[in-house]
Specification:
alpha/beta; Urease, subunit C, domain 1; TIM Barrel; 7-stranded mixed sheet; 5-stranded parallel sheet; 11 helices; globular
């Protein structure tokens, strides 16, 4: 197959290529060359498939996510996850990392996608989140109460099919009583869990909103900080020194705040989101300016934060954090792919032919990602 691009963004920060043909052979990219002769597909702009490094497939943007989990059966949530996998791939998300699900749901969806039984993105899954007893995320969590228990919990997730680990380092917005700025898992629990994950070749992500919890997670050797809302200068220095990834999940608080007047969200969610929204942008912009590695991830599945709207996260990285459209696209392809670890998220020979065909230049207007002309995963039209 030959795909012709008027302008090609390869996922890196190099200048885009113009009027080129992408030769697809057996699901991978054979070569990229000057356009000429006949082609099979043609688009004004081509980018790599998007990579969402933070999502929850069993959530569908319900106003009360934790209430939904309490009121539904595992089978009902599995059906939602299957539908959301389909919505993600249709929207151009060809790779996704599910960072917390109940009842092995994400692992089952991943396996079904890999076996070709349902459509969906390439997937990494964390299984149950590892939290303190009664801590943030407990409805989809496995309680951890000591360093050795943390190691056992990692082993349980590995046994259950997880290929990454999610740790809850601080409180969060969506769990009643969990204060976002307060550290939850202790430093020694985090260190034991990260060490156990790394021993088995798994990467570890930390839900970390509060300042002390971010520092605890980074000092424990965490691979990525999720949210990072209350980063301070010391957090930023640790992130840069340790080459950690920061996944800002801007869509999560933005969507909550945009729907406050509807009154359908729990009051505690609204109150916590308001408090964090006041400081989020300034803190995260400082991290970007300091050169912290930003990876795209939207926390899709949280209130009003839909899986088919991942393009919004790329737009917010540009509009709120001051990244250029190409830098935001780089974060949502190459950098996010490096973090997830399934491929490199760039368009070059030997890489998977995950392509997003667009009707206009995403470098001029990142909103072009909202309405893909066509999505290819492994060279196959989705």
């Amino acid at each position: 197959m030959i795909v012709r691009a008027g302008v090609l963004y390869d996922g890196t920060l190099e200048a885009p290529k113009r009027n080129v043909d992408i030769v697809v052979e057996g699901g991978t990219i054979g070569e990229i060359r000057a356009a000429g002769g006949e082609c099979d597909l043609e688009a004004a702009c081509v980018t790599p498939g998007l990579v969402n490094a933070h999502a929850h497939l069993e959530g569908s943007g319900e106003p009360d996510l934790m209430g939904m989990i309490a009121a539904t059966t595992p089978a009902q949530r599995l059906l939602r996850a299957v539908a959301n996998a389909r919505k993600s791939i249709k929207a151009g998300v060809t790779t996704i990392r599910d960072l917390g699900s109940s009842n092995r749901i994400a692992a089952d969806v991943r396996d079904a996608v890999e076996e070709g039984r349902i459509p969906g993105p390439r997937m990494r899954v964390a299984g149950a989140v590892l939290c303190m007893t009664g801590g943030h995320g407990w409805p989809i969590g496995r309680a951890v109460d000591s360093p050795w228990d943390a190691r056992k919990a990692v082993r349980e997730q590995l046994w259950g099919g997880a290929d990454c680990i999610k740790l809850i380092a601080t409180g969060g917005v969506l769990t009643k009583g969990a204060v976002p700025g307060v550290a939850q898992l202790t430093p020694d629990e985090l260190e034991a869990a990260v060490d156990e994950a790394h021993r088995h070749g798994l990467r570890a992500a930390a839900h970390a909103i509060g300042t002390q919890g971010i520092k605890n997670a980074l000092r424990a050797g965490i691979d990525s900080v999720e949210h990072g809302t209350l980063v301070d200068d010391e957090c930023i220095e640790l992130l840069t020194q340790r080459r950690g990834y920061l996944v800002p999940t801007l869509s999560a608080p933005t969507c909550i705040l945009a729907h406050l007047e509807e009154g359908r969200q729990p009051q505690y969610v609204a109150d916590k989101a308001r408090a964090l929204g006041d400081v989020m942008v300034a803190n995260l912009r400082r991290a970007v300016e300091a050169g912290v590695r930003i990876a795209g991830g939207s926390d899709a599945g949280t209130p009003y934060n839909y899986h088919e709207d991942y393009a919004q996260e790329v737009e917010l990285m540009s509009s709120l954090l001051g990244m250029t459209p190409q830098q935001a696209l780089h974060a949502a392809t190459n950098v996010a792919a490096e973090l997830v670890g399934l491929h490199r998220g760039i368009l070059t020979a030997g890489e998977p032919a995950d392509l997003l065909l667009l009707r206009r230049d995403a470098g001029d207007d990142v909103r072009a990602l909202r309405d893909p002309q066509l999505v290819l995963k492994g060279g196959a039209i989705q």
